[in-house]
Amino acid sequence: MHKLTAISSALALIGISQVANAETQTDWSAVQQCAALKEAKIYDTQIIKIEWLPAGELPQDKNAAMSGASAKPVTAGAHCIVTGEIEKRIGVNGKPYAISFQLRLPEQWNKKFLFQGGGGTNGVVSPAIGKTPVRGSDALPALSRGYAVVSTDSGHGGGSRDTSFSEDQLARFNYALASTGKVTAVAKQLIEQMYQTKPSKSFFMGCSNGGREAMQAAMRYPHEFDGVVAGNPGFRLSRAAVAEAWDNQHFLKYAPTNEKGEKIVANALTQADLDVVVKGVLKQCDAKDGLADGIINAWEQCDFKPEMVKAELGERAEQKVALLNAIFGGAKNSRGENVYASWPYDAGLNTNGWRVWKHGSSQTAEPNAINFTMGVKSLAQYFMTPHNPAFDTLTFDFDKDVAKTAEIAGVNDADETDLSYFQAKGGKMIIFEGVSDPVFSAHDLRDWYNQLQANMKDVQGFARVFMVPGMNHCGMGPATENFDPLTALEQWTDEGKAPDFILAKAGPEMSNKAKEMPLCPYPKIATYVGGDENKATSFECK
C-alpha cells in the first residue's frame, strides 16, 4: 500500500482529515503525534475532534470584531487542530454546559504557548490563531510565528452578547476567571504530549474582555504565564457595566422625540453634534504636544469643556451640553461621588466606533447601541446579585444598587494592585488603551496604574501602559493603531529589552496614511521635536 494511503486510512479511523497532495510537504511524525491526541487521557476532558490542516490561508473569523482582531486573511503553516470540552455537565437550570476549547499545534513549533483572549461575554470558540487584538494591526499572528495557540468559550455557549448563562453559579465563575486556569492546564498537557516537552514561554493576549482575562492571568495565574498583552481591558468590568447604565439613562433623558412622541436615543447627539465637539477638542488640545496634527498625545492636559462649543450645537444646545457633561463626567451617586471614572475628550469621539457603543444609529424607539443591547442584560443578569433578568437597569439607583455588583466584582474584576509574584518570577505586562474608547475609560486604567505604582516598586520594570490617542475600542478611530505588542513582549521576555516605545502606523480610519508615531509608556507622551511630522523619529517620549 502507498505510504500516503496507509497513513490516510489510519488517520481516518480516528477522525483526522488531511489533504492528500501535501505528502511531500508534511512531517508524517507530526501528523501521527497529532492523531494520538485523540486518545489523550486528561481529567474531566473529552477530545471531540482532531484535524490536520496543511499550510495555507485560513478562513476568516466571523467573531473577530468582538475580540478586537483584524478581519484580514491569515496564512499559517501546517498544524494540528484539537477541539475539546472540559467539565461537561448539566447546570442548575437543566441546560448543558462545558468549557469548550480549540488548540492549534503547529508543525514548526517555536516552543511557545499563547492563550487567545475572548470578547464580550465569550460564548463562542474562535479560531485559535492569536491575531493581534487591534483591528488595524497587520502584525503576524501568533500561530503564523510558530506558537501553540488555544481559545475557549469560557464555559458556556450562546454567543458573545448572551448573558443567560448567568443562571448557573459555576458558569459565572468559569467566565469570571476559572476557565483560564482549567484551559491552560489542559492545553499544556496536550502540548507536552504533542511535542514531548513543555513550552519555554507562555503568554496571554487579548482585548476588551480578553484584556481583562490577560490581566487576570497575571493576577490569578502568575505561575502559568511569563507575559501578557492586555488591550483596552475591561479590568473593572462590574463598574463599567454601572457606567453603561448611567449613560443609557442620560441618553434617554436628553433624547428628542419623533412625530410619534417616541424617544430617539441616536438623535440625542447627532453626527453633526459630535463633529462640532471633536473640532472644538482639537482646537483646544491638539497643539499641546507640540504639533497640531489631529493626534492629541497630551490627552491628560486636554481642558476642553462642552460649553466652549455650545453656540455651534444648534437646537437643544443646552440639553446637549448637559448630556456631554453627564457622560464624560462619569457615573455618580447623589452625593456627586464618582462610582466609575470620568472620560477624556479626544479626537475619536465622532466615529462609528464610538457611536456604536454609546447611542447607536437606530431611528426607532428601540436603541441599537451595544450599551443597550448587551449592557442592559449583562448588568441585570451577570453583574448584579441577586441575578435578576427582569430588572430594569433604566431604574438603576446609583446610591443603592452599585453595592449589588460587589459580589461578582470580587472574582470577575482584574483590579488588584499586588502583582508581586508575577513580578518576582520575571513576568511582563504590556497594556494598551484607546483614549477614545467608549467602553472602558482611559482615566480608569490610568488611575489603576498610578495605584499600582504607589503600591509596588519598579513597576516600569515589569508592567507598562501605552495609551493610543484617537483609538476606539480595540482599534478604529483616527489613530496610529497599526502596531505589534506581541513582538514588544517577546523582546522584553526573551532579550530583556523593555519597550521604551512601540512603533505605530496609521490605521484604516486615519486620513493621513503616511503617519507614524511612537506609542510611549505612560506617563510619557510622544512629543514633537522637529523634522518630518509623519516620521516616528520626529518624536520623543517625554
TrEMBL record:
Gene Ontology MF: a single term: metal ion binding
A Pfam family matched in the record: Tannase
Entry keyword Signal: yes
Keyword Cell inner membrane attributed: no
Signal peptide: 1-22
Keywords: Calcium, Disulfide bond, Hydrolase, Metal-binding, Serine esterase, Signal
InterPro entries: AB_hydrolase_fold, Tannase/feruloyl_esterase
Recorded family membership: Belongs to the tannase family.
PANTHER family per the UniProt record, alphabetical: FERULOYL ESTERASE B-RELATED
Name recorded for this polypeptide: Tannase and feruloyl esterase
